[in-house]
């Protein structure tokens, strides 16, 4: 039976769902609560999920020189002898995964059910006993198959290559340069996920004492690990230190398979209990060793990719390698840490300092922003004076808008409040005035919503950690620029952008001199509009962004209401009824407690300046009690549908 031809049609069809391209950068930027690629507290450019890139075991490109040898001469001879008279050319092409499994070493010793029935019809009476034996063997094999079918599938079907060309030789050998490094790394990640999943299953089944499943999972994990190690070693010259880990890991996997097999042949509870502890210890050791080996392999691949970026003079090749690097940053913070430690930030800023690569500035800075979602990336940026480079790009109005927008994204990332370390802000403060000036100008001249979003997100983060930034913004007429932008749907077109604007206004409202300017620019009307912000879709991230807009609008209104003119204007614009509605109606605030607290605080501030603006009933429930009592009263309210 030709196992290569048999596996290809099935595997090619199985790969398509998992290998579909991921969400576009634009959509990923808007996925997080603070907008995707802006570095707000919850944001980074990382949409995550490792899992989105991981193909299922059936769709992984698991080809190796060994896989071509999986169909043994014995199984070929038996398959041809048993089915040569029955199989037509059509049936040979339409072989299912089940038939491929029957060419495994186990099934090579027995006839298939179809061939048994065929032989019984032509057999004579002396052959009846042989027929019954064959049936018994098949039944026994079918019982074992329940536990071992995945191993059979792995050995015969999954080990076949799924490539562009039918004669592709290896999993880690890809024909085109553009995708080679990315495919190598993504293949490692997919295979690592498969092994990690099997090891996780072992922990669960070991806990439940399902020894048959424990052993079959150990066999599968052992097969996956050996396949990964051998194929990677064949495609790359692995470092000597990594080779030691590989050898040790293979020995531990074999030990795990051996010790789990012993538990199949006994029901002694005392023995099984002692074995459970030993297996758990070995399994933990295997998991740790495997994780360390994968990190070393990933680091090795990333080093190769970074060396290509540093050594190439071709804009096309460098751009392709940066794209590969950027795609890898989407696989989670752990991979970003490895990328940062291997010097990717240094290599990317070298690109951004050469005029001959000016067309690559935006692309390189986008990768830098993704890497800087982890502290290691920010530390690398600090070491190469990356902040000075960002300031130069931002302040140069002759630069392309896309490059300045991506520089703003990096600023937003490194100033994000969710970073625990602020040591990198020392050099940032030296250039802060130039950066803030450039960012507010970018907000005023932005040609699209994405550029405005990135620039405003950077400004919002900067206003959190230094009051001097707020003073600079007031001097630069930032309130006028931001409120005018809110009228332009081409720039402020999503709740994420409005979230950044109202964050800046909330931080500016701390300064007393901001109140007259907000009043002059009709900022109170804008705040009341933001109190009515509602999501346009069922997206959880958009709903969360609307909650933040409502909360910060109420906070801003409460702070500004210290000014009697602001308070009077808010009351005249019917701010009180809207705030009461948000307090009493959970649906209006999307059941958000933070919005409730902010609205109660704003109501109390307005009531302090204008007591007559609130009716007695509302005053009795929302103003007179302690804040916590009013909060409990409103949070326990249920909507009336009468």
Automatic annotation (TrEMBL):
Protein inscuteable homologue LGN-binding domain: residues covered: 133-176
Family matches, as InterPro entries: Armadillo, Insc_C, INSC_LBD, Inscuteable
Sequence ranges of Polar residues compositional bias: 8-70
Name listed for the protein in its UniProt record: INSC spindle orientation adaptor protein
Cross-referenced SMART domains: ARM (SM00185)
Lineage, top ranks: Eukaryota, Metazoa, Chordata, Craniata, Vertebrata
Chain segments carrying region Disordered: 1-134
GO molecular function, one term: cytoskeletal anchor activity
GO BP: apical protein localization; asymmetric cell division; establishment of mitotic spindle orientation; regulation of asymmetric cell division
């Amino acid at each position: 039976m030709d196992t290569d031809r048999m596996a290809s049609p099935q595997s090619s069809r199985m790969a398509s769902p998992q290998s579909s391209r991921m969400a576009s950068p634009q959509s990923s930027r808007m996925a997080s609560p603070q907008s995707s690629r802006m570095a707000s507290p919850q944001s980074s450019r990382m949409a995550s999920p490792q899992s989105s890139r991981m193909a299922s075991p059936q769709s992984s490109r698991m080809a190796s020189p060994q896989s071509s040898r999986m169909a043994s001469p014995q199984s070929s001879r038996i398959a041809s002898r048993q089915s040569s008279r029955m199989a037509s050319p059509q049936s040979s092409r339409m072989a299912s995964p089940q038939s491929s499994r029957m060419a495994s070493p186990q099934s090579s010793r027995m006839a298939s059910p179809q061939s048994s029935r065929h032989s019984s019809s032509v057999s004579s009476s002396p052959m009846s006993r042989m027929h019954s034996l064959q049936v018994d063997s098949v039944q026994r094999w079918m019982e074992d198959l329940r536990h071992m079918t995945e191993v059979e599938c792995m050995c015969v079907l999954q080990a076949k290559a799924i490539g562009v060309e039918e004669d592709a030789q290896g999993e880690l050998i890809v024909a085109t340069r553009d995708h080679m490094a990315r495919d190598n790394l993504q293949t490692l990640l997919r295979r690592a996920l498969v092994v990690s999943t099997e090891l996780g299953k072992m922990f669960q089944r070991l806990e439940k004492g399902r020894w048959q499943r424990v052993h079959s999972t150990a066999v599968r994990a052992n097969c996956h690990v050996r396949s990964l190690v051998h194929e990677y070693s064949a495609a790359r010259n692995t470092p000597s230190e990594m080779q030691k880990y590989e050898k040790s890991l293979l020995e531990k996997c074999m030990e795990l398979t051996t010790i789990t097999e012993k538990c199949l042949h006994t029901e002694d509870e005392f023995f099984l209990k002692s074995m459970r502890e030993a297996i758990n210890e070995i399994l933990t050791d295997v998991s740790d060793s495997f994780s360390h080996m994968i990190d070393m392999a990933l680091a090795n691949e990333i080093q190769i990719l970074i060396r290509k970026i540093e050594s190439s003079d071709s804009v096309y090749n460098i751009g392709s390698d940066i794209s590969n690097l950027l795609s890898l940053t989407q696989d989670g913070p752990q991979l970003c840490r490895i990328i940062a430690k291997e010097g990717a930030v240094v290599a990317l800023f070298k690109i951004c300092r050469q005029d001959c690569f000016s067309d690559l500035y935006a692309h390189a800075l986008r990768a830098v922003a993704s890497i800087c979602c982890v502290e290691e990336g920010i530390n690398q940026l600090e070491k190469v004076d990356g902040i000075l480079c960002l300031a130069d790009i931002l302040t140069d109005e002759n630069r392309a808008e896309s490059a300045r927008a991506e520089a703003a994204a990096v600023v937003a990332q490194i100033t994000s409040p969710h970073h625990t370390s602020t040591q990198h802000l020392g050099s940032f403060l030296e250039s802060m005035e130039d950066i803030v000036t450039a960012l507010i100008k970018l907000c005023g001249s932005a040609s699209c919503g994405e550029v405005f979003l990135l620039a405003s997100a950077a400004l919002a983060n900067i206003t959190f950690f230094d009051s001097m930034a707020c003073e600079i913004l007031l001097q630069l007429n930032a309130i006028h620029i931001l409120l005018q932008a809110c009228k332009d749907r081409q720039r402020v077109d999503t709740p994420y952008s409005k979230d950044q604007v109202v964050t800046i206004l909330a931080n500016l409202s701390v300064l007393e001199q901001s109140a007259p300017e907000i009043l002059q620019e009709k900022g109170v009307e804008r705040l009341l509009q933001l109190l009515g912000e509602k999501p346009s879709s069922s997206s959880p991230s958009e709903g969360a962004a609307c909650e933040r807009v409502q909360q910060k609008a109420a906070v801003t209104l409460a702070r500004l209401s210290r000014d009697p003119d602001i308070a009077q204007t808010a009351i005249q614009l019917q701010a009180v009824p809207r705030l009461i509605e948000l307090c009493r109606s959970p649906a209006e605030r999307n059941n958000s407690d933070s919005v409730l607290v902010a609205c109660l605080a704003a109501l109390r501030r307005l009531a302090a300046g204008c007591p007559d603006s609130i009716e007695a009933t509302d005053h009795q429930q929302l103003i007179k009690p302690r804040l916590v009592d009013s909060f409990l009263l409103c949070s326990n309210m249920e909507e009336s549908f009468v």
